[in-house]
User: Fold these one by one.
Assistant:
Number 1:
Amino acid sequence: MTDLVVCIGEGKGTWGHVQKVIEDMEWGSIYVVTNKFGAEKFTSKKKFEFILIDENKRLTELVEDIRKQIHGKIKDFEVGVNFISGNGKEHMAAMSALLKEGFGIRLVALTFDGVKEL
């Protein structure tokens, strides 16, 4: 079963979208890339693991922080990814970390027809 990686930013307007992506499909494991604020506030009905980042760090540092926290946890060759929440710097870091770990990327999002691969 495919694992899921999502970003959670400080703008709560997108959290509902991310919660639906997490909860409306079956995932192997779920990883939420976020900062301290997101880790304190974000919840889901499904079990997930935070990948904590400090958004004040440089992009290259964020990539390595994410890689260290995700290394060895995802056993498949590809991963579902949702970047509706968060910002470009976080998205770049997460994408770079996943690609450097050798994963294929499946972009997934909530649509009017449910959660779909894009």
Number 2:
Amino acid sequence: MGESHPIGTKTILIVDDEALLRFDLVDFFEAAGWRVFDAEDADQAIIILEERKEIRVVLTDVQMPGSLDGLKLAHYIRDRFPPTILYIASGHVPLREDELPAHATFLPKPFDPNRLLCQLEMVIE
């Protein structure tokens, strides 16, 4: 019959200006069977989100160049695309719970992508 999960369930957007880190994460999630989109800044991420409505998860770095940093991007996503699962990562800026958008998770860098994958797979299953 049909799929047991909604279309786009295992679809992630990775937003990070550090190209090597971003490409490593893209490769990691693709190898795990995810459909992956990537952006080097918030402006690109917003364009992708507007065009690709199936994106279910966004993983963004905090410190990035452009009109919005990752935290502002996460708040924008929560307002504009409320069901999106949000992970906000930083190795330089520790964030308090009250700074995060509702239902977002902070990941201090470096983080274990295997652990993140396990968390995501439990949430979306």
Number 3:
Amino acid sequence: MGGAYWIASYPKSGNTWFRIFLQNLRDDAAAPADINRLRISTYPANRLWLDATLGFDSGDLTASEIASLRPAAHEWEATRHDDVQYWTIHDAYGVTPDGLPLIGGNGILGTVYILRNPLDVCLSYANYTGLAVDAIIDLMTDPVKTISRDGDGLRLRVQQSLLSWSEHVRSWTEARGIKRLVIRYEDMLGTPSETFTAAAQFLGLPAEAARVAKAIRFSSFKTLQHQEQQGGYVGRLRGGGAAFFHRGGIGTWKGRLTDEQVRRLLGALGGTMARFGYPGDN
């Protein structure tokens, strides 16, 4: 059949957890999937993946030139496989400097977009990076924010347009011409059976109750934290802060963000928060 589904989210919104669930669901094994050996997804913003797909070294290209090449690389890679692919993306949805959609065209099957209360995202992002909370608030409210990841020499991740949290959410949830399923991190925790079953059905994966329940159990934060404590996690940011699977809860910002920090986030993001059921007054 071929083609690719995108698993999209603002950073620290549950993307990794969701992909671990997908790995456990597809494996249907007797033990949890190894978090350091996930085979379920590809990260096309990885420079090594992009270079291999393009067939040449992108090191001499500008960020704008790389952005213009990404849609063609996505489409070509999605259509050359017989099996379905699952790809991770943190970019906001948008168009390239040439006016082409970042994702789209043949082989793109749909998108699962995951969102999370930005107050919790802020704290989780600060823990992950080791940056001050105020710096993360600046990042989350920046309407033109871009990100990449430092490596030795060239950055290992190509530049990704993140925008503000609100613009990121709107870019994906309001994009036209994309088959999508929007799920909330809070529902992944609060109503896991219904939420993960709906996602499995959308992605064309097995959705039998017993199999979904086992995949949820094998992907619990307790299991993920234990694996990280035992063998580390390759996705942890070098030189960053706390463990990658740090808390994973709901409302972790309460008592840890100051009133002023909460006011800053609500002032910039409150409208989009309310649209998706995130009241900011409690």
Number 4:
Amino acid sequence: MLMILGIPFLVCLILTGIHVYLGMHIVRRGVIFVDLTLAQVAALGATVALLIGYDLHDRTAYFISLGFTGVGAVLFALTRQRKEKVPQEAIIGIVYVVSAAASILVLDRAPGGGEHIRSILVGNILTATPWDLWSTGLLYSIVGLFHWLLRKPFLAISFRPEETPRMGRAVYLWDFLFYLSFGLIVTSSVRLAGVLLVFAYLVIPAVGSLLFTERLGKRLALGWTLGGVSSALGLWASYRFDLPTGATIVCAFGLLLLLLTLGRSLFRMIRPGNQTTPRAAAAPPRGQKA
């Protein structure tokens, strides 16, 4: 089992490392579905490449997909700061549904379209190779270094939006660079893991950690732990019960998030600060006799 699951698990850990951090930004910005939408835009680019004769995993298909994602990054960077009647979430939803519908139309004209739809949605991370491991690790390390060097404007825009007026028009540039790097990660991840699993890595650990703390460092630690445990549990269940790997990992994420939510609620119910002491319950209102 270790021979089969070793490389996929290491790839999952790499996905966890960068996606949990980016997910913190996305959740804090309040554009939860921008990751799912960019993933779907990347998938649309891949399907267009497939239609014109390239394999989904071909390098040319990757760059076509990245080009589509770059257009999405420009759109979201420009619409985020504008004060319009139409909220950005509506624009994100429209882009997602149109991209998904267009992908289906394109794949309907491609041979084996149904199988390609399944591959784009849930991927097949079990087929990850040592080259996928090293190339993905290198790319994500470069993007991680990029975010560390530009952490001040990125963190300010995401976590301290009241400071953005001081940046003037530069905020559009920082937003574009954020979404462009985000799109680069998503495009690469969709090829390996599929749309649904990418969304799970981005959002579920960020939401789960938010249940317990607001501090970024602690949230990252909790998110990385949740991502690692979910990956291990999902891979094991997929191997043990012969289930689709991507979908199984997504369900493992959902199960652990549910357990965390229930555990937090139970803890808040039974902790001493939430209990009424017998003396307090028996004490009569002030001015009345017992």
